[in-house]
Amino acid sequence: IALNFLGDCIFCFNYSKIYGDNLDNKASVIKQFGAGVYIAGLKVNNGITYATISKLEEISGAILWQKELNLPSEIMDLEYMPLDPNSGSPVEGIIIVGRTLPFTNAGLPQDNKSFIFSLDASTGNIIASKLYDSRGRESFNRIIRHPNPANSAFPYYVLGSVNVNNNPSFPPPSSVDNVVLVNLNVNLVNNYFSLYSGLNTNISEIDLEFSRGIIPLNSSNILLVGNRTNAFGWGALVKINGLTGAILYATSYQNSMDIL
Question: Are residues 115 and 73 in contact, defined by beta-carbon separation less than 8 angstroms?
Answer without folding.
Answer: yes
